[in-house]
Amino acid sequence: MSSSLQDMRFLIHEVFDFAGHYQALAAANPGKFDDMLDGAFIDAVLEEGARFSEQALAPINRSGDEHGCRLEAGEVKTPDGFKEAYATYIELGWAGLIGDPKYGGQGLPESLSLFLEDLMCCANMAWTMYPGLSRGAINALDAHGNDLQKAAFLPKLLTGAWTGTMCLTEPHAGSDVGLAKTRAKAGPDGTYAITGTKIFISAGEHDMAENIVHLVLARTPDAPAGTKGISMFVVPKFDLDGSRNGVTCGSIENKMGIHGNATCVLHFDEATGYLVGEENQGMRYMFTMMNAARLVVGLQGVCLAQAALRSSMAYARERLQMRALKGPVAPEKPADPIIVHPDVRRMLLTQRAIAEGGRALIYFTGQTADRFLHGPAEDRVRAGELLDFLTPIVKGMLTELGFESVNEAVQVYGGHGFIRETGVEQHVRDVRITLIYEGTTQIQALDLLGRKILMTQGKGLLIFLEEVHRVVETLREPLPELAGALAETADEWGRLTLELGTSAQQDLDVLGAAAVDYLFYSGYATLAYCWARVAEVAWKAQQRHRRDSAEDDPFLAGKLATARFYFSRLLPRKAFHKQVIEAGPDALVSVSDDALSAL
What we know:
The chain has 599 residues and is of the alpha+beta class. It has a domain at 440-588. The protein has helices spanning 3-15, 18-28, 39-57, 61-67, 82-91, 110-123, 125-144, 147-159, 282-318, 342-374, 377-413, 415-418, 424-431, 441-454, 459-475, 480-506, 508-548, 554-570, 573-583, 586-589, 593-597; strands at 70-72, 75-77, 162-167, 183-186, 192-202, 211-218, 231-236, 247-252, 263-276. The strands form two sheets. Strands 3, 4, 5, 6, 7, 8 and 9 form a seven-stranded mixed sheet that branches. Helix 15 (459-475) packs parallel to helix 17 (508-548). The N and C termini lie far apart (55 Å).
């Protein structure tokens, strides 16, 4: 059993009780969810997903990076093995795991797709992005498409015969989608002619599926300026009659990492498009894709951290270098394994705290998303407010920490980590884009502080703090030191938020200057909650184990040790971010543009 699979099972069954969670969803939705959604069913999904990931995806991860995608006569060729792995993925039925049964999906809860995504991304992030983008297109069309569009596109997307993309960014606009110039001209038959250029389109062109369905943001001629004038259109590579549509790949971006995924420049030349929903509502619809995608991007940060941890941990146990400060640990060998050195242990524990704590946060958020979509009516509003609050933290914090984690893995390897042979430098290059995807860390921070805190009077935060205080009470007896630190963090978080909100109302530069540090503070506090839950369950399980054994269970001991490390060595980082927030914006805004740029 891989280390990640053991960790997944522990979180799924012991910490978050997903089987009980699914039973509650089934009770709230009679006839919608299969009664077979029990622990055995979940384990079957995990086992099959792990087998596919290890046998089909992991072996082509490095070769995909080495060879990359290539553009030949307007058609993208994916690396060797990618197309065959995708055929296996379709054969296993993974493409329709969570789709509407009416259109060929299996109708399972969305969190199940997170488990599968976790396994696949840990094995091969670049490949996993192809089907991952399809799920976003499926969700958007299911939520906002009309019956004809659903009937035309969803069955093919849910079998995996077609894949999907989201086309937002334009060369001049970057993250400011309101500046988009792509045009949509209505035709007499109800379709639209789409003309413009989109860049950075992941999986925008490839040879793995029969067709590619693009969800494109564009403007109709009389649309208002800014984001209020954006509409969404579904534009297939091949039109519904089988003819080639007016969308072509102009180039593949020559990028830092994820070489196995085709990041494309797409040209739309009067391509036939179909309006999704109403005109000028495209940004609202696109967030159906983007919010789900932000959780997946956060998971990508966790997965690359996990993959790098697995590699650096094995290396640290084998690599012999110097002696332990207190004397030889392996006197029969010429040097001790580097895992005995305190700072190597710090790097390994940092990686583990990030990877496993981040996975716990992803699963908790996925469970919250399930409750928002399928829970009892009285629970959906609170779950939605909590989900809105957690999403920018998941995306912003877990990608930043994922990048830190893979860099620590390179450092564990030393010079061997900097060369391509060991493979860990690929993780650094691959994970770096996650800090930018679906809105940069700065955009997530402004969303968290501006929209999810100030504009809502902190509703999501208050709901989360209730959950934190509940955990504090259950921890007081078994792990009082963790309970005290968590309670102190929750109280300080609330005070800091209130003070920051008051200051921002008087000067909006306070918001811009504090947002990223507030995101980090919130991220460390949120991960403390997750590690507290993990520690509570691990402590209780260890007590049961001790009744039958003279020795502790190493897995549970590792969980408790990592939780204590997080609280003692990583959670204190929040003090730095608090100090920066309280310093205010003056040091940023008082310098003139000329002085700032005088190099």
